[in-house]
Amino acid sequence: MIRKATNLDLQMIQNHAAIVQQEATLGYMSGNPALINFDMMNHYKGEYYVIGDHQSIHGWILLGETPLPYEHEIVGMVLELYVLPQWRKHGYGKILMQYAIDFYKRKGFKRVQLNVFSGNPAKNLYDSLGFQDVSTLMERRI
């Protein structure tokens, strides 16, 4: 059900990049989302994994790793999670996130981190899986 993304999958993911970026960042990020995605893949040694059946992809997750800036430890990083609108409310986001947690456990990591914008409904999923706020980025427009 979950597999590493093929080149064909990556093209489909890239075609959805602008929509994903808009939804995930609630409109905060601009630029070329396709370049941002693939820059993240390279910077974080990321790999996409997709969920679906033989006919279609229902969603995907981008997994990477990063050193913690305040400790000498490499942690797993969920860089992107997306479920196509027609497949939402079927548990695919939770399945992908559980896959990520298990993936990092098998690699011997002790922590998994992710970044989520305030107001993103996916935060409820992350909370339900035991993720906790570590820091808060605040902003004021001037």
From TrEMBL:
GO terms for molecular function: acyltransferase activity, transferring groups other than amino-acyl groups. Signal peptide: none annotated. Residues 1-142 form the N-acetyltransferase domain. This is Acetyltransferase. It comes from Halalkalibacter akibai (strain ATCC 43226 / DSM 21942 / CIP 109018 / JCM 9157 / 1139). InterPro entries: Acyl_CoA_acyltransferase, GNAT_dom, YpeA/RimI_acetyltransf. CDD domains: NAT_SF. Pfam families: Acetyltransf_1. The keyword NADP does not apply. Coiled coil: none annotated. Keywords: Acyltransferase, Transferase.
